[in-house]
Design brief:
With 266 residues, the protein is an alpha/beta fold. The chain is 29% helix and 23% strand. Strands 6-7-10-11-12-13-14 form a 7-stranded mixed β-sheet, with helices on one face. A 6-stranded mixed β-sheet has the order 5-4-3-2-1-15, covered by helices on one side. Strand 1 (38-41) and strand 2 form a beta hairpin.
Length: 266
C-alpha cells in the first residue's frame, strides 16, 4: 500500500509539473507580448514609431519634398495613427496624402483638423492643449509648445491653430514626449513631473526652434534619460547639431539617440 501511495504521489507531481510548465508558456505569451519600441527617422521632424503593441504612429509627415528623406521612403506609409504638431509646410505637406492613403485617424489641434475636413479627410480626432484621449490603444495628451502655425493654401496663409506637443503613453506603460517645434519653456518641468517621459523628441536646429543648449536644459526639466534630436540638418539655416547636444547632456547621463534619415533604432 505504501508503494502504491508513493507511485500515486509521483504521478500527481508529474501531472502538476506538466500543467505548471504549460501554464508558464501560456502566461508568458499573455503577460509579455510586447515588442521593443522602434523609432524610424525620415528626416527633419518626421518619424514612424512602432509601439510595443505593434501600432505604427506617424509624426508630422513631410517626405515628398523633404531633402533629408530617402527616396525609398517618400511615399505615404502604412500607419495606424498620425499625430500632427502644427501647420507649417515642413510638418504637414504630406499630411492629406498620408491620411487618405492610410485611412489612419489624424490627431491635431481643432483648427488644423477642421482644415483637413475641408480637404475631404473625415477621420480626424481633434483635441486641444491639456486634453487627453484614448486612441489606437494609446493615451495621447496634447501639451503646450511655443511657435507659430500657418500654411500657404492656394496662395493664402491659412491659420492652423496653435502649435502643440504630445505625450504618448504606450501599451507597456512607458511614455514618450514629442515636443514639436518650440523654444524652451518652464512648463516642461510640469510635463516631466506629471507624465515622466522616458524619451524626448526635441528640436535642436536653432533659428526657428530651440538650439542644443536649450534642448539640454529641456532634458533636465523633463528628467529624461534618452533624447532624439530633430529639426536639424535639413537646411543650412539649421545650425544646431547632435554633437553639440551630446557634449552638453552625455556628462549628465542622458543618451542622445542620433539617427540618420531612414535609420531605425530600438
Amino acid at each position: 500500500m505504501g508503494a502504491g501511495r508513493d507511485a500515486d504521489a509521483a504521478y500527481s507531481a508529474s501531472i502538476q509539473g506538466r500543467k505548471r510548465t504549460e501554464y508558464d508558456r501560456v502566461e508568458s505569451k499573455v503577460v509579455n507580448p510586447m515588442q521593443k519600441l522602434s523609432i524610424t527617422w525620415l528626416g527633419h521632424s518626421t518619424f514612424i514609431l512602432r509601439t510595443p503593441g505593434g501600432k505604427r504612429i506617424l509624426f508630422d509627415p513631410w517626405m515628398s519634398s523633404n531633402p533629408s528623406c530617402p527616396d525609398s521612403m517618400k511615399k505615404p506609409p502604412k500607419v495606424d495613427l498620425i499625430l500632427v504638431s502644427h501647420g507649417h509646410f515642413d510638418h504637414i505637406e504630406d499630411l492629406v496624402s498620408c491620411a487618405r492613403e492610410s485611412g489612419a485617424p489624424v490627431v491635431g489641434i481643432f483648427e488644423l483638423c477642421d482644415w483637413l475636413g475641408r480637404k475631404g479627410i473625415a477621420n480626424t480626432s481633434p483635441m486641444n492643449k491639456g486634453g487627453s484621449q484614448q486612441i489606437a490603444g494609446l493615451r495621447v495628451t496634447m501639451t503646450n509648445a511655443h511657435h507659430s502655425s500657418g500654411y500657404f493654401d492656394n496662395g493664402q496663409m491659412v491659420y492652423m491653430g496653435e502649435p502643440a506637443g504630445y505625450v504618448v503613453r504606450l501599451e507597456d506603460g512607458m511614455s514618450i514626449y514629442y515636443a514639436g517645434d518650440t523654444c524652451l519653456f518652464g512648463d516642461m518641468k510640469l510635463i516631466g513631473e506629471m507624465y515622466n517621459p522616458s524619451i524626448a523628441f526635441l528640436p535642436i536646429g536653432d533659428r526657428f526652434t530651440m538650439d542644443p543648449m536649450q534642448a539640454a536644459r529641456a532634458c533636465e526639466f523633463l528628467g529624461v534619460k534618452q533624447v532624439v534630436p530633430m529639426h536639424w540638418g535639413t537646411f543650412p539655416l539649421l545650425t544646431g547639431t547632435p554633437a553639440d547636444l551630446k557634449t552638453l547632456v552625455e556628462p549628465r547621463g542622458v543618451q542622445v539617440l542620433e539617427l540618420k534619415p531612414g535609420e531605425t533604432t530600438e
